[in-house]
Amino acid sequence: METPFTHAAFKPDAAFTGAAERFFELLRSFGMPGAGAAGAGRDWSSLAGPLAGQFEQWLKTSQSAGPWFAAANAAASGPGAGVGAAQAGFFGPLPLGAGAAPQQDAQRTWDLVARLAQLQGQLASHWSEIAGTAARRFVARLGAMAGGAPSLDNALKLYELWVSCAEESYAATVRKDDFCRLQAELANTSAALLVEQRRHAETLVRAFGLPSRNEVDALYAQLKDLRRQLAELAEAARSRGAGAPRPTRPAGTGRRKRPRKARA
Amino acid sequence: MRPFAPDAEAVFAELTLRIAQTLTRLREVQGVTVGCSAKRAVWSCGKTTLYQYLPLAEAPSRAAGRPVLICFALVNRPYVLDLQPDRSLVRRLLEAGLSVYLIDWGDPDDADRCVDLEDYIERHLGGSVRHLLDNHGAEALDLLGVCQGGVLSLCYTALHGKQVANLVTLTTPVDFHTPDDLLSKWVRGLDTELLMQSGNVPGEVLNGLFLSLMPFRLTQHKYVRLLTGNSDQRALEDFVRMERWIFDSPPQAALALAQFVRWFYQENRLTRGTLRIGGRRVDLGEIRQPVLNLYALEDHIVPPDASAAMQRYLGSADYTGCGIDTGHIGMYVSRKAAHEIPARIISWLQERH
User: Considering the domain B35-352 in this protein, what is its CATH number?
Assistant: First the structure.
């Protein structure tokens, strides 16, 4: 799922609209008529359920939609999608997927997708806990702030209180060791899935006689080693005072339209 | 019973109107520009470019002075230090007559997947330093490291102390294992080998990570606050400039990011004295030059303790640490910081020139 925060070209108006809509929705929950009879006492507990529900929904869509898990979401796009469809979504029209990958590789990818779904289920239980705690905390703190004359200022004050409760509940949960472990495992599984998919792509690339990522990386390592040797030679020459070649010219010795590239 | 009475329809009507007005105004200011001071590229290495900010005509001439090199983080764009005329650390330094240079790490692509921290510290930062020393005929410069760039600057200064006369660090973590460091807790269990193998990390991923440290304040609350009606047109422009910067993050070279996570966040090597760059041990005790360390007291990314710990590990007898009452981003652009931080840096440097 794409949110205004995951898009490459960020649109503040879209983010504002989304936040304003949620604010509006929240106020509707606050002021929803008929949920409690007038004079029934200062019991706002019935507010907790709808608030928690809204909040949990938002957590699910905004947190798990982060690009960190984009690969995972793409791969796990529906029970009927299958590995081939997932990879087609990820790599476009390349003939990749279960059909192109050896059976063993396809199984590994399947296992990762299944693990990811399992982990996301566990994550959902944390969102539920955060939402429930935040809603209860909010209701408990409403106190004198509630029931005043309806005004936008009062609405914003209620919103401030709600945000404080939400952040506090969120902070309490996401600092726990089990949440941190889950977060890391989700990221690691997503990365493993991405690596697996790239491995399939490498197989295909080799079949066409194209240089693979690993080969390019190996070349880079060689280049880096040569650079290091060159720098050591230059440094040795410099320290001997033998007039090692200067990597740059003094400023103001000529007009340059482009910056100079370093030699090493 | 609800905290809002059922007769609140008038409020909803007002709110609807306010949303529409704010949206219109936001769309009007979306074209705001960022970056205000004239600069030119003077050196480059890989995707990294070293910029010189052109001196201001009205500034006192101190051309013979030591250059100040700003080393920003890899994870964000450096133009936040020169966002607009009244919020520009760069401009304040230029107004004080300093020769200001800045490293822009650029956008790593797949060819840079194996660029590592040694490359960034020794070739890119080191190359920039050597270029400036050659061109200025100086033996040492003043280095100003910001956030992750401060970590790189600490490493470079520890390894090449003679080339750095004074070191200034802003929101720079040193101890990555302080109890309140949520980011550190989250990345502690990452498999950095897998992270490296899975390729460069898009800027959006890191943005998402930073936003999820405080998701309601950072993705909801700040927008709703625009509805309070206190935002004039200029404040709205400032807001959009910041938004543009926050969501304009470069991708991260896979190997360098994996190393940074492992060596700093997971193994806390800087404080343990076990960090090695280019085969050499990075010993913060070797940093004996004057150090000014400015950190934010409300920082949710680099907790103040993580930065203030620096003093315990330095060999410098001239250390000044100062906590500023703002948040991480506020250190670069808040109105309070826009005045206080440049003033502190300039006076501290002037006392040591």
Answer: 3.40.50.1820
Other Cβ atoms closer than 10 A to A99: 11
Q: Where are the domains of chain B?
A: 35-352
Q: Convert the pLDDT of each residue in B147-170 to its tens digit.
A: 999 999 999 999 999 999 999 999
**Token pair of B80 as six digits:** 């936040």
Where do we find the tokens 């760039």?
A: B149
> For chain B, what percentages of helix, strand and coil (3-state, to nearest 5) are there?
50, 15, 35
CA A63 distance to own-chain centroid = 7
Helix and strand totals (H; E) in chain A: 8, 0
Contact in structure between B287 and B154 (CB atoms under 8 Å): yes
Chain-chain contact of A262 with B43 (C-beta, under 8 angstroms): yes
State the pTM of this model: 0.85
Q: How far apart are alpha carbons B101 and A63 in whole angstroms? A: 38
The C-alpha atoms of residue A128 and residue A131 are separated, in whole angstroms, by: 5
Q: What is the DSSP string of B247-272?
A: T----B-HHHHHHIIIIIIIT-HHHH
Neighbours of B45 (CB within 10 A): 25
For an interface test with A, which of B141, B200, B224 has the most A Cβ atoms less than 10 Å from its Cβ?
B224
Domain range annotation of chain A: 13-32+43-208, 209-239
Q: Mutate one of A1, A2, A5 to test the B interface: name it (highest B CB count within 10 A).
A: A5
* B45 included as an active-site residue: no
Segment A167-211, tens digit of pLDDT: 999 999 999 999 999 999 999 999 999 999 888 888 888 888 888
Handedness of CA A164, A166, A170, A172 (dihedral sign): positive
